[in-house]
Amino acid sequence: MIQKNLSVLNEEGLHTRPANEFVRIVKGFEAVVTLTKGEREVPGKSLLKIMKLGIVTGDEVTITCDGSDEEAAMEALVRLVQPGGTA
Q1: What is the DSSP string of 14-28?
Q2: Which segments within the chain are labelled E, that is strand?
Q3: From 3.40.630.30, 2.40.50.140, 1.20.120.1200, 3.30.1340.10, which CATH number describes the 2-81 domain?
Q4: pTM for the whole thing?
Q5: Domain extents for the chain?
Q6: In sequence order, what are the residues at sequence separation of 6 or more whose Cβ sits closer than 8 angstroms to the Cβ of residue 38?
Q7: pLDDT tens per residue, range 20-50
Q8: Active site residue: 6, 9, 15, 59, which one?
Q9: Residue 11's Cα: distance from chain center in Å?
């Protein structure tokens, strides 16, 4: 299991389009992914629950990946949340 605490740099936060892309990425991997903001943790495959977190640019989130391809999943998700940032 790997976990990263990140500041959301994506200019749209994780609203409809980027949240949908987050879910699409997660579904492409075997790893189980969770997304946490504050005390609320949601499954990475749930578009509605991700959107209910209300993640905007500058928010701090934690991404957790657990599974055989967890590192590849994490890299792809970090690129979405922090475009141009460092993984």
Answers
A1: TSHHHHHHHHHHHHT
A2: 2-7, 32-37, 40-43, 60-66
A3: 3.30.1340.10
A4: 0.93
A5: 2-81
A6: none
A7: 999 999 999 999 999 999 999 999 999 999 9
A8: 15
A9: 14
Residue 47 structure tokens: 């578009």
Active site (annotated) includes residue 15: yes
CB contact at 8 A, 15 and 80: no
Measured CA distances, 46 to 22, 85, 86, 87 (Å): 9, 25, 26, 23
| pLDDT tens digits for range 52-85 | 999 999 999 999 999 999 999 999 999 999 987 5
Tokens of 37: 């903001």
